[in-house]
Amino acid sequence: MTPATNNIPDQTLIAHERRLWPRPVRISLLLLGTLMLAIPGYAQNNANTTNITPNTTPPAAAIASAHPAATAAGEQILKAGGNAFDAAIAVAATLAVVEPYSSGLGGGGFWLLQRAEEKRAVCVDARERAPLAADRDLYLNDAGTLEPDLSLNGPLAAGIPGVPAALDHLAAHYGRLPLSTSLAPAIDLAREGFAVDARYRRLAQWRLAVLRASPAAAKQFLLDNQVPPEGHRLTQPKLADTLERLAARGRDGFYSGTLAEQLVAGVRAAGGLWTLEDLHEYRIVERAPIVFRYHDWTIRSAPPPSAGGVGLAQMLQMLAEVDLAALERPARVHRIVESMRRAYRDRAAFLGDPDHVTIPLARLTHPYYAAGLARDIDPQRATPSQPVTDADHAPEGQDTTHFSILDADGNRVAATLSINYPFGSGFVPPGTGVLLNDEMDDFATQPGTANVYGLVGGEANAIAPGKRMLSSMSPTLVESDQGVAILGTPGGSRIITMVLNAILALTDGGTPKDWVAAPRFHHQYLPDVIQYEPEAFDSAEQAALRAMGHRLKTVDPHQFGNMQVVYWDRVRHQVSAASDPRGLGTARVFSQPAHRDD
User: How far apart are the C-alpha atoms of 557 and 541, rounded to whole Å?
Assistant: First the structure.
């Protein structure tokens, strides 16, 4: 696609820099940065040229996912001769069956992939797209007022899904096994059913009214129009049929033919905008990850339309300016929070779908720009966040999912998938078994209007036909001579800061169990408050942060993600993995015969 007219002129970024830097320093760094950016290929390739220890074979394979059945499905495929990419298909499809509140064929996501023999990674962007009939005023009434329910509930809230196309793409270009083999565990589980657990019941109860509004969803996910009891075996025969179509015909089994017609007919009959053209035109995009250094570690993360890689690059490069280990805990938290504040301010101002807006990506992720952002951090006082003009407070669902995979050859996958809110839009087109997302709510739906999460977004993330909405999903690979970490988490707007804290913990030492269990805190520019888990700060630390001018708010740990980590320790020649204790996932390390691809 050809990028649209630049809605984010470089002058905006220059003005932002001008507020942070005195003129003599600004001129010197601008000249130096311009010279570096003028080197052919610097912005795209510099971070990929860092020396990394040549690959050695890990001693075991590992999978960490948000559900035991998904981890088991991935292990089954690896032991059947598949690689990490085949296992990723099995895990994602199984999560679509057992975690309908978090992900599914009706959603999208980002797969960060790295082959064992390659230093470079690739990000498979399977983010949803807006229907071609959508426009920026889609959710405004005749008075110009936002109708928030329209972007959250029912088929009008649904973007065009990307997961089916991604599964087909992984099998065709990266896997060893046929797509039908990798999908088999999910098909069997959809037909045979799984036991409803407490988490399913809690989230289904929260979205009960929305699920009841869709007869097909109510039949699929409820029992006699009520939340099923714990232990009830939930079968999904229509979803199994759809998975079988996908297994037999690849992407054409979903995006064309009988199923596509059923999807479009069901959506349009209930007030949605989808057309067959929307489905036919959907394509995944392979994008270069955001790659940067933090001390001795090379970090690769998702690029726009995810804000994850840019945010991590900015925050970690700001934090590299100081010796965090030498700071007392309140001072360390203060410094981290101030880096979060600045990165989320830039998220609001500059980021969106790179196929529709021009993003000054090389400059936003440059270490000199990060140094400029860090320069005005007062070590003693919080910087007040100012209202963002021309920006919207766009919500972002928290019931996403993540899984991490390492196979015995050293291939690695970090994948974060979502349908946005629990059970997405709550709508299933009759006859399909496909629960649709409500990711359209991740667009900036109306400038200047706040929502329950207060996450800011601006013109770069306005609704447009065929556009991908901005995301916080941040599948990440962290690598050095010491080891390789594969990590990510759900958590809506908090995803990026959770991954940040995990990387800081990783580089400090410890184990994956430590990294996923540590209490978390978050700041996203607006609202101007540190959100934190009850155990994150003791009373003295809270008092010290308030004395610096910070406002604090405790948040339920259920809202702080469900991190999944695999770590290959190259020094000790060990592989370990951990699932977040906040969830019900399973991490497994197991033997798998190495099978180098030719």
Answer: 19
